[in-house]
Amino acid sequence: MADEMVRQAQAFINIAYAGKLGIGPIPENGQTGWPTMFALTRALQYELGITSLSDNFGPTTLSTLTAKYPVVDSGTVLSANFAKIIQSALYCKGYDGGSLDGVYNARVQSSVALLKKEMGVDVTFPGGGLEPKVFKGLLNMDAYRPVSGGSETIAAVQRWLNGSYVPRRDFTIIPADGHHSRDVAKSMLFAIQYELGMADGTANGVFGPGTQSGLKSHTVSLGNSGTWVRLFSAGMVLNQRPVVFGSAFTDALALEVSRFQSFVKLPVTGTGDFSTWASLLVSYGDQARNGAACDGVTLITDARAATLKAQGITYIGRYLTNPDPNPTGDLVHKAIQPGELKTIADNGLRCFPIYQTFGRDKSDFSYPLGRAAGQSAINAALDHGFKSGTRIFFAVDFDALDEEVTSNVLPHFKGIQDAVVDDGNRFEIGVYGPRNVCTRVSAAGHATASFVSDMSSGFSGNFGYPLPENWAYDQIVTRTVGSGTGSINIDVDIASGRDTGQGSFNAPRTPLPDTRLVPDVIGAMRTDVGKYMESIGFPNDGGFRSHTHETCFNTFMVEYDPVITQLAYRYNMRKALIQTTAYWEMRHLDAVDTSVDIEVRMEFLATGKFRDSSTGICQIFGKTATLAWNYAIRNGYAQGTIHDPATDEDKYNIWEDCGTDDQFAISTVPLIHLWNAGGAPGNTPEEKPLRPMGLTYTESEIYQILRRYQGPEGSEASDHAKQRLALYQVLEKYNALSRNV
User: Fold this and answer.
1) Would you state the pLDDT for residue 25?
2) 394 - beta bridge partners?
3) Does some domain include residue 175?
4) What is d(CA 187, CA 182) in angstroms, rounded to the nearest whole number?
């Protein structure tokens, strides 16, 4: 909602500082936001005589302000504009700024005093004057009252930290909004370092060796009182434990400490020992702990299994797939290797599967990619021999901001869930990632357990968030254990017991060539493909497009199944690669495509000039077909005559065959895939060659083949390939069922 006084403040900035701040006019919309706060910060810097203006209220601004105006009040305010900056900022923060008249009047003083009280610094900084650190807090978007369901108890902790430590050089006033956050967590570490006696410049808000060593001599327990107990109870409050924030270690606090220790799988002592302090202060906690679980990218041999058992490890996390087609170094055995699960089982260990392609950026997460990930993980789990009931942990291996969780991660896991449901709920879904990701995915009903990447303590999704209630594994440190042939590098995981992996496995499925679809799967396959296409905006009745789902499905999965099976066998590729491409292209046909075909044909017959376009049920360009057939003939995949891709007649003739002969078009699709795997020689641009086509293509290679059929990376083809990848996985599910009958 727009605020008139905020709008006036924005107008003041635009008029008074036009052309002076290094930025354009800010919106005069009456809504507080960072653009307004940044402009006010620049205006302050301008008034202070700072020549290099910045959005950041950094050390230069703070030191300059401190040197010139240790306290800004009615007697020291530099100018009317200087006072208006303060008045404007007060209104933007929700306080009374007076009449924007450039006077540091009683109303301004009263609001500044209230601001400092709500910050918690009113005892340290009494009165209505504006100290530099308070000024800095005024020019940001932090709130100093509980907002959006914020906890009054957490706000009390925040105010106490501000009031107690604001005189220290590197301590910055934190919000008092009732929410734990990265800044609040860091302020707790500063507070502990100050209480340990660290000097300014030494205290840095990092949980380093000095801080850890100091805490080991500050165990708090029943009957203790004072600042250390207050700090410990603050840590409990910030971790959402139901305790009183105070300076006395009571029976009630001891009981809640015991419950917390039980929850995070620490020895239950009821005392604030080092390990408990560590679990309250940083996501990874005490990294000297041993865990009952681990995960890693190293092949488990008998010798390594013995090492892990000697470490007290029972549960091993291993990857279902390796997206890298040419792994090197430590990643050669990232994916589960043949015979490895038997080794794990024979040694009395258990395995929990992890599915990760890349997952390093929000662009790797969407509903279609979730559908693809879900079905791909199911296919891989069955290939390896995991039994029904196994929980697969799907990875979110980046610092997803909260808004990215909403926009990308949650739809992705909805796609995973839909794939698992459509598969008959043979497998359960787990989520691997930072605390906030795990909590939100689980709260949305998309996962039943969390594997928490707490080792990444600097992630915004870990800093300030409590351990998820449904945590199964808590990843805390990387460690090399064992020696000789038993040496292995692992991520140590604390296990809660919510997931126990699997200790026995079915026989693995070998990568057999595809066969004809067995009749029993066709009905379910038809339904699943239709459901997926509907989920991405393709109604089964075809909508405005030329063909229905039923027509396209029957064409490629029924009528031409013998042809496609033979082609896949001949070229050593998965049927799903041919089926996906052909079905996708036919589903996209519309009246425009038909009219373009007519225009191209009439123009060539009239002038002999060929205007290339995609044609037929597989939407193939004349030049593409020519280059693909030439490549196939030269490399022994096919027989025929080499044609000139620069000759209109040659391109038109093959274009006409692709447009009028469905079987020829279908036969051309795998040749285009082979040509694209070879780098699309002769195309503009050419591509990086992939491995020779094979039945063990990784998901990233499949994506590349699907994408290259349509166009270059970064174009519409990239987004479509992500959607087609999910379709591929659905089709591959039923092809796998047929070939493994």
Assistant:
1) 96
2) 355, 431
3) no
4) 9
Residues 484 and 526 in one domain: no
Which structural domain range is residue 276 located in? 182-281
Beta strands 488-495 and 293-295: pairing type?
antiparallel
Please give the Cα distance from 428 to 178 (Å, whole number): 35
Record the tokens describing residue 277, joined without a space.
Answer: 């302090």
For residue 649, what are the contacts with CB-CB under 8 A and spacing of at least 6? 608, 610
Over residues 155-181, mean pLDDT: 97
Count: domains in the chain? 4
Residue 161 within any structural domain of the chain: no
Look up the CATH number of the domain holding residue 453: 3.20.20.80
Amino acid 286: pLDDT: 97
| SS3 assignment for 633-682 | HHCCCCCCCCCCCCCHHHHHHHHHHHHHCHHHHHHHHHHHHHHHHCCCCC
Within this chain, do residues 332 and 249 fall inside the same structural domain, yes or no? no
Please, which residues have CB within 8 angstroms of residue 212's CB and are 6 or more apart in sequence?
Answer: 274, 278
Q: What is the pLDDT of residues 48-84, one digit of tens each?
A: 999 999 999 999 999 999 999 999 999 998 899 999 9
Whether residue 503 is contained in a domain is answered as: no
pLDDT tens digits, one per residue of 275-306: 999 999 999 999 999 999 999 999 999 999 99
Measured CA to CA, the distance from residue 467 to residue 470 in angstroms comes to 9
Asked if residues 322 and 335 have their Cβ atoms less than 8 Å apart, the reply is yes
* 191, 280 contact by CB (below 8 A): no
Give residue-wise pLDDT tens across range 488-512: 999 999 999 999 999 999 999 888 9
Mean pLDDT score of the chain, rounded to an integer? 95
- Specify whether 57 is located in the same domain as 203: no
Quick one: which H or E segment has residue 726? Answer: helix 716-739
